[in-house]
Design a protein that fits this description.
This protein has 2 helices and 10 strands, in the order E-E-E-E-H-E-E-E-E-E-E-H. It has 153 residues and is mainly beta. Strand 8 and strand 9 form a beta hairpin. The protein is globular, with a radius of gyration of 15 Å. The structure holds zinc ion.
Amino acid sequence: MNSITTDRHFTLVKDSLVHGKGVFAKQKIPKGTRIFEYAGERVLKSNLAQELVSGLTSLVYVMNLNETMAIDGERGGNDARFINHSCDPNCEVLYFNQTPYVYALQEILEGDELSFDYKYGSDADVEATAEQKREWFPCNCGAKNCRGTLLEN
Ligand SMILES: [Zn+2]
């Protein structure tokens, strides 16, 4: 938890036109900047369904970590959990020592909303048609190249 407050230098959280809250640049962020960690409690993926039922998590802010573990930004998380998905994102998530960090993929201007590609299901066996993917996990990010779904195709 120690690095969380100092990591907020570049960003602020406010209402987003895309979905709910979003994370916005408070100042210009150069390409390649490590903006902050995607913080949260490390949880066993095999426990998540039960934890959803018992109200410990809504699963909304769960980030994949490896085959067995995920990070739940709802528990012990920071502002990174409010970053919205885009099919044409200005950020990416890179992992170092089993810890995800949000990096600027390009120069981000003051006031721009941060986004990254959630790529849901990229390590899961999601058996669905393109139509089902768009129905179950719809994307309305507005990008020219929008896939129409949060799932990785
Ligand atoms: Zn999209």
